[in-house]
Design a protein that fits this description.
two-stranded antiparallel ribbon; alpha/beta; 306 residues
C-alpha cells in the first residue's frame, strides 16, 4: 500500500469571468466536469483521499453533480470557504462577496488534512503527467530541518486563453531547479507576436512563451497549513484597509515568504501536458473537444467512474 497522499480541490471560486459556476459545467460525454478528470488522474497516480473546498451555497448541487460519483471510488471530504471564516478580532466587510484567496482556501482544510497534500484548481485540466510526478515527490520527501515542498510548472504559452486575460503565477527558478520566487500576475494576455501582462492600467510587459508558470498545482506537508495560519492575521491587518472588497491571500505569497525566510525549498517539477481550462464561456468548446479526443485515444475510459 502506498503512502497516504491527499488531493485538495479548490472549488469555491465565484466564476465571475465565466458568467456562472464553471466548476459544475459538464465537459465530458457523461456529464463529467473538469475536476472529474483531475481526480481520476490523481487517483490513478496514487492519491487516496480528496478534499473539496466549496461554498455552502453550492453544496447540494456540487454533491449531486460531482461528489456522488467520486465518493464511490475514493474517500471524499468537504470543507467550506466562507467570507466569515476569519481569525478572532476580524470581521468580513458587509459588501464583500469574493472569497479570501487560495491560501485561505487551504486554511479551511486544516482540520481534515493531516498528511502530505497536493492543491489544484477545480476549473483547470492538468493532465496525468502532473499528478504522477507530484505523487512521486510527495511520497518520497518529508519535511526536515526546512520544509520540502514542490510545485508543477507549465510553459506559459500552453496555459493562456484566446478569449481574454488569465491570472498566472510567473516563476523564477534557481540553477538547482528549486523555486526562487513566484509572482501572481492577474492580467496576462496574448497578442499578435506573443504574450504580455499589464497591471492596474500600466504599460505592457512582454513575457517569453516558455516562461514557467504556476497553475496552482502545489505539493505541501502539513507544516504549510501552520505557516499560512500564523501569517493570515498579519496579512489581514495590512491589506484589509487598502482593499476590503477584493484583496486575496494567495498561496504564492506564503510560499515566497517562506523561501525568503530560509524556511522552505520548493522543487519545481515540470509537465509537458497542455493545460486546458474554462476561464471564459468561449473556452468550453475547446475543452470539450480536447477531452473527447483524449477519450477516443484511450487516455480516459468512455465512462470515467463506472
Amino acid at each position: 500500500m502506498g503512502k497516504d497522499i491527499t488531493l485538495v480541490v479548490m472549488a469555491a471560486g465565484m466564476g465571475s469571468r465565466f458568467g456562472g459556476l464553471k466548476q459544475l459545467e459538464p465537459i465530458g460525454k457523461n456529464g463529467e466536469v473538469i475536476l472529474d478528470f483531475s481526480v481520476y488522474d490523481a487517483v490513478k497516480a496514487g492519491f487516496n483521499k480528496v478534499v473539496f473546498v466549496i461554498k455552502h451555497a453550492i453544496e447540494d448541487d456540487f454533491k449531486r453533480i460531482v461528489g456522488s460519483r467520486i465518493e464511490k471510488k475514493v474517500k471524499v471530504e468537504y470543507v467550506f470557504q466562507e467570507t466569515d471564516a476569519l481569525p478572532e478580532g476580524f470581521t468580513c466587510p458587509a459588501d464583500r462577496q469574493k472569497p479570501w484567496g487560495t491560501a485561505h482556501a487551504i486554511l479551511c482544510c486544516k482540520n481534515v488534512v493531516k498528511e502530505p497534500f497536493a492543491v489544484v484548481n477545480a476549473d483547470d485540466y492538468y493532465g496525468p503527467e502532473a499528478f504522477r510526478v507530484m505523487y512521486d515527490y510527495l511520497s518520497t520527501h518529508e519535511d526536515g530541518s526546512y520544509y520540502d515542498y514542490c510545485m508543477v510548472s507549465y510553459l506559459l504559452r500552453n496555459t493562456v486563453s484566446e478569449n481574454g486575460s488569465v491570472a498566472r503565477g510567473v516563476c523564477v527558478t534557481e540553477p538547482d531547479g528549486t523555486l526562487h520566487s513566484v509572482t501572481e500576475r492577474t492580467r496576462i494576455e496574448t497578442y499578435e507576436n506573443g504574450v504580455h501582462f499589464t497591471e492596474d492600467g500600466g504599460a505592457r510587459t512582454d513575457l517569453l512563451g516558455d516562461t514557467p508558470v504556476s497553475m496552482n498545482l502545489w505539493g505541501f506537508g502539513k507544516s504549510f497549513l501552520d505557516e499560512a495560519e500564523q501569517r493570515f492575521a498579519g496579512w489581514l491587518t495590512e491589506n484589509l484597509p487598502k482593499n476590503p472588497l477584493k484583496c486575496e491571500y494567495f498561496l504564492p505569497l506564503v510560499v515566497t515568504e517562506l523561501i525568503e525566510e530560509g524556511k522552505a525549498k520548493i522543487q519545481v517539477l515540470r509537465s509537458t501536458d497542455k493545460w486546458y481550462g474554462v476561464t471564459y464561456r468561449e473556452d468550453k468548446p475547446l475543452v470539450v473537444e480536447a477531452i473527447a479526443r483524449k477519450t477516443a485515444e484511450g487516455q480516459y475510459p468512455e465512462n470515467l467512474w463506472a
